[in-house]
Amino acid sequence: AQTVTQSQPEMSVQEAETVTLSCTYDTSESDYYLFWYKQPPSRQMILVIRQEAYKQQNATENRFSVNFQKAAKSFSLKISDSQLGDAAMYFCAYRSQGGSEKLVFGKGTKLTVNP
Amino acid sequence: EPEVTQTPSHQVTQMGQEVILRCVPISNHLYFYWYRQILGQKVEFLVSFYNNEISEKSEIFDDQFSVERPDGSNFTLKIRSTKLEDSAMYFCASSLTRGTTGELFFGEGSRLTVL
User: Are B113 and B11 in contact, with CB atoms under 8 Å apart?
Assistant: First the structure.
């Protein structure tokens, strides 16, 4: 079974600075997808960024980028130029390419952005 | 922007009572999911639903749980006889396409407290 581990329960960053959230996962599959979801307080979880395991190029979405290290099974999220609205719980998630469509989540990292 | 809505936002019930959690997915979406998060634990997959039948379920989703789409717009999760360990935040999600690349849109969650 796949597992996802987020080793940082909480992180903080100064506004306009850069922060990196860590995620590692365990799987025996070679093809899969990795996701970062953001959940602001009392709001829905929304997709921040997605990475296909077969792609070597790291995904980027504006200020959000990932460092995907397939051999190390590591998938970190970098937030550049942090904004107050980035404060949220961030979840790393794994999904198989074939077969099961369930998302396997990490425990989450609570990000605080200080003005 | 269309979003997934869930009701109630919080429900308190006595052990052994039946509970129905309701979700209105995004209107053109075809795939529906329930996840739950026990306090302090990971978000866990419960069930996926497509074409009026369960397509996948986890070992958590035992005979006490059922899902249905009674009227083409609502998607409900029923817990027949609640236990203390059913206390959790329950998240509904929907997706336009199946599978690994289909982006899931989550609701804000329904908090269930079983006394």
Answer: yes
Rounded Cα distance between B12 and A94, Å, is 32
Mind spelling out the 3-state secondary structure of chain A? CCEEECCCCEEEEECCCCEEECCEEECCCCCEEEEEEEECCCCCCEEEEEEECCCCCCCEECCEEEEEECCCCEEEEEECCCCHHHCEEEEEEEEECCCCCCCEECCCEEEEEEC
CB contact under 8 Å between B99 and A101, yes or no, is: yes
Tell me how close the Cα of A35 comes to any Cα of chain B, in angstroms: 10
Q: How far apart are CA A82 and CA A115, in angstroms?
A: 10
Q: Are A104 and A2 in contact (CB under 8 A)?
A: yes
| Residue where the block lists tokens 């997915």 | B25
- Alpha carbon distance B83, B19 (integer Å): 11
Determine, for residues A44 and B107 on separate chains, whether the beta-carbon distance falls below 8 Å: yes
Side-chain half-sphere of B2: how many Cα atoms within 13 Å? Answer: 12
Sequential pLDDT tens for chain B (115 residues): 779 999 999 999 999 999 999 999 999 899 999 999 999 899 999 999 999 999 999 999 999 999 999 887 899 999 999 999 999 999 999 998 876 566 899 999 999 999 9
Residues of A with CB under 8 A from a CB of B: 4, 32-33, 37, 42-47, 50, 52, 91, 95-98, 100-108
Residue B70: per-residue pLDDT: 85
Rounded Cα distance, B79 and B62, in Å: 10
